[in-house]
Amino acid sequence: xxxxxxxxxxxxxxxxxxxxxxxxxxxxxxxxxxxxxxxxxxxxxxxxxxxxxxxxxxxxxxxxxxxxxxxxxxxxxxxxxxxxxxxxxxxxxxxxxxxxxxxxxxxxxxxxxxxxxxxxxxxxxxxxxxxxxxxxxxxxxxxxxxxxxxxxxxxxxxxxxxxxxxxxxxxxxxxxxxxxxxxxxxxxxxxxxxxxxxxxxxxxxxxxxxxxxxxxxxxxxxxxxxxxxxxxxxxxxxxxxxxxxxxxxxxxxxxxxxxxxxxxxxxxxxxxxxxxxxxxxxxxxxxxxxxxxxxxxxxxxxxxxxxxxxxxxxxxxxxxxxxxxxxxxxxxxxxxxxxxxxxxxxxxxxxxxxxxxxxxxxxxxxxxxxxxxxxxxxxxxxxxxxxxxxxxxxxxxxxxxxxxxxxxxxxxxxxxxxxxxxxxxxxxxxxxxxxxxxxxxxxxxxxxxxxxxxxxxxxxxxxxxxxxxxxxxxxxxxxxxxxxxxxxxxxxxxxxxxxxxxxxxxxxxxxxxxxxxxxxxxxxxxxxxxxxxxxxxxxxxxxxxxxxxxxxxxxxxxxxxxxxxxxxxxxxxxxxxxxxxxxxxxxxxxxxxxxxxxxxxxxxxxxxxxxxxxxxxxxxxxxxxxxxxxxxxxxxxxxxxxxxxxxxxxxxxxxxxxxxxxxxxxxxxxx
Length: 671
Ligand code: CO
Description:
By secondary structure, this protein is an alpha/beta fold. The chain is built from 23 helices and 19 strands.
């Protein structure tokens, strides 16, 4: 037992009024952001946070993380929620506990560096809406990407928490790149920038307990700001790591309340509170109040999300993380991506190729967005490369990375890969070495002109500037120009109960005859898996209440085994086959043709993977050279330019910007 954890009192009771210690461990609760982002694809709704909000406000957390990361994207894209409204709503319930968010440096809450004018306005409006602590990170640990946001955070009187993304190339801390000296140097850089606290961001749960001890001790001896530990559970080490960090004198630890804990999320708060009870680092938290919060979440909230939990594995711990040093979320993305391509058998090749791609791309830390960039490129290489040629399909983001648009990589990028990626790159073939946002033109004025009256305030404008395609779609829904699709509406606890009851009946063989069922526009279809059986459940809105109108064994058994296919974690919305038709303007210039005739007479440009159409670079009637980009689709959050398979004229275009497409969908036809 160390000086930090000596038992100081014999009065080891649960009561919240037990004697306070001099240096209690500070705790940030991150259930309402990272918790549901890690466990159920960031689908947590504001209405499901309210039942516990006031109780959580009473616990005594140093802060609660409620915003940032993927929440901004997911809310407007999948939940029909205005992200800004969440902050304002929760603020009414959290009256004492400061709000923290995860800010991706110059990437803000998106996946690329935005221009300085967007970044400045974003920070300012975020403070205006109630945010107090900016946990700021850069995927490359290139703090030049903080230079724009930090002064604004400071000017607004908010707390600047600087992150060091914790990554490894070896099984333990050390090696040539990511060793103790590296992290101390990074911490000193953050201190020099005015960090109020420093967070070790262990997004993959790679930090071993004794490495945490050594690192925290060294940081406490080297820098003044509070030291904060964020270590995911994924590999199973984090409860041990937390305890060693406490012994080394860590100031703040991130945890989740039990229903939002473990797996790829974080260790639970309650065992930590009990473990420290009566010691000099006693949190002072009321364990009974925490139990109440648990009960509400278990009974009233979690049933609505259980279909999103990954129930394909019994084990809570991902051993692959220990073997491959990659974040759990990234591994599940890789698996999803391969599954969608019917190539799950290639997973071992992906594991093999991944460290190689990472090294070639500058041995970068693996965290959003670099984990997606490296992961998607690895899958592209495994699926599309030939013996003669590597990097056959390079994503737009890899090109940006090679250009220097994300910042400076930890080691130089492989020159051959860089050269290939930058061939014909629009910004230029010579990479930059300056602060990335320096080469970005201001974006706000242009966004303002494009979105016009649809943006009623700066918050709307930022939503559009950050996410032009999905943001615009959302603003139309928000302002009543388009109907909110039923697929964005919440599942109610009544829906869940009815589904469960019907599945029980179906399993007992009591639903022998297929009920008369007619699918209407109000019907939302779910695929529900029970053991090895798949049931199709139709839920219909009737006078405001959801009614299950249909349950039947699903046809075909080749469906990927996710509980509900409607909202697979981190995957684009399920693509619906769309009847092919020429766009209206094309009808005048070219005879309308059906997809069948188009396919039989021309050469199709097909989607190599499921995704969403970002934009067409060519229109009907345009001449196109072989290899020229016809259309850009977004898959797994990466933009992929699809080239023309032959020269000719675009005869048909079958989708619009924002449309979801399935693999092998014909996106365009070349004559
Ligand atoms: Co995290």
